[in-house]
Sequence to fold (656 residues):
Amino acid sequence: MARAWHLMSRPNGMPTMNNFALKELAQPTLGEGMVRVKNSFLSVDPYMRGRMNDVKSYVPPFQIDAPMEGGAVGEVVESHDLGFAIGDKVVHMLGWRDESVVPAAALNKLPELGVPPQDFLGNLGLTGGTAYFGLFDAAQAKEGDTLFVSAAAGAVGSAVVQIAKARGMTVIGSAGGAEKCAFVKSLGADAVIDYKSGNLVKQLGEAAPKGIDVYFDNVGGEHLDAAFAHARKDARFAICGMIDSYNGGEPAQFRFIMRVIGMRIRVQGFIFTDYLAQMADFYRDMGGWIASGQVKSRDTIVEGLEKTPEAFLGLFTGANTGKMLVRL
Amino acid sequence: MARAWHLMSRPNGMPTMNNFALKELAQPTLGEGMVRVKNSFLSVDPYMRGRMNDVKSYVPPFQIDAPMEGGAVGEVVESHDLGFAIGDKVVHMLGWRDESVVPAAALNKLPELGVPPQDFLGNLGLTGGTAYFGLFDAAQAKEGDTLFVSAAAGAVGSAVVQIAKARGMTVIGSAGGAEKCAFVKSLGADAVIDYKSGNLVKQLGEAAPKGIDVYFDNVGGEHLDAAFAHARKDARFAICGMIDSYNGGEPAQFRFIMRVIGMRIRVQGFIFTDYLAQMADFYRDMGGWIASGQVKSRDTIVEGLEKTPEAFLGLFTGANTGKMLVRL
Fold:
């Protein structure tokens, strides 16, 4: 019998284990066009926190006492669709469960790029794609730019660091603690800021004495304010996430936001799914960087479906380096 | 003997009369290429507050015990340049004084557009140009958009309201108090919000139940946060000024800034002087709207050079409706 994590109540602030319950999931006989997938890896991502609130957003909220959703890779075990055969490796969005029944239209075969399947949840999936389109479309980043990226040890941030280095930028990353900072440095970052070790505005000023051209924001709050403080003329900010604010708390304060005017800063919010029509570009470039070793994957793997909420909660306490995954 | 207002000390927070002194100004014999102008109108503008701080910005800071500068129109009374003759009506940036000695290269003859000369400090000058380029370049505003503009009774704001109506937008303006709101309504705004009369987020939600496509920011702070709260997908914000923050006080807090991501909001800071090469477009369009009566000028005029700092200080207490000018 398949099981799926259900959202049982909406978190107020930081979610806890009490918001979730693992329940048996009735597995229907497959209708026409439906495919059954045995999942091997599940993705947990910070954006899922937003779907736990009952507010209109870019993705609809999770429903109470219904299965959660999210990225997953696995293998087809039963197919009522001519496009999929048993044994096909696939990626889909009905995760948080061990077995998924997915309409063929919502299922994608993994391109043959010679990488482990779980990479399609990371550098070749949502997080790598977010880094790629955020950098090159939202922020219009280009060779020679000085780039600052927050949460640089995270899944999106570590992809940003490596892609930006592959494209000839100077990269400053922030992370929390010596171990993560060492990891960011190992990815090729020119400078690393430990945001737990002192004032961000001061540290960024020392790391980028001539200022920054691009800021890739995963964090919001003080990181964003430090980027305002050190933006050069015509700087571009890609706003990918604001994990500092996902669980409530004090509203962000900005002491340097007025520099938007003098420096003609452009701030652009974006969402990966707007770029699905351009995935071929992404697979070509990212596949190339992975093949050449310029982009490497680093996963933090939690074992077992039972641990899925724990893996998710770890995203907000810095438990992951690189991509957080659940292996089934 | 000519006189000029000097900055005697840098204000800490809100400026006071004590920061300024009116002093006699030695009037040199004119060198080659120099022109003497008897000024008839002086401009005071919020951006001048920034130049009173000793910080690197898009214009250099005013120097202590040196004459202030700013927009001025007047008439040539002596010329050592072949390009200018006595009696020419001109506009230049050496204001805050009754008589200016200006290099010909920094002097512009007023185009023949059949308007009073002081309009070249307002709707045909810095404030109208700021409205025009902010709307059409920074915010990419277009027919059919729903636009929100703060400080809509001010010089820039009142131009934004009228230009946006001339281009077929739905316009919501904010202003402080019943009298200014009535003025904004008289300019053609579809809805007016009195920011002194209640919660901005709530009021903007009522005025724009379907949200806003464009926000033209003159104020920052709560106004900007309300715009984040009600932005539609792909909204564009032109950040022109943040008068709420010019004189210090608490840093701005943003409760709704995270909507930048979900709504893919673009925030663009801009400065009028970046567009000087496109002034011909501006004179053509703005001249046309003025000739057709679609854009009207409303000035708040203070009489006499002695009153210049008072006029300037009035910008921060809402003393002006439309453009604040000093008549000499």
Observations:
- Residues 2-122+298-327 of chain B form a domain with the Quinone Oxidoreductase; Chain A, domain 1 fold (CATH 3.90.180.10).
- The interface with chain A takes residues 50, 57-58, 220, 239-242, 245, 250-255, 257-271, 274 of chain B (CB under 8 Å).
- The mean pLDDT of chain B is 95.
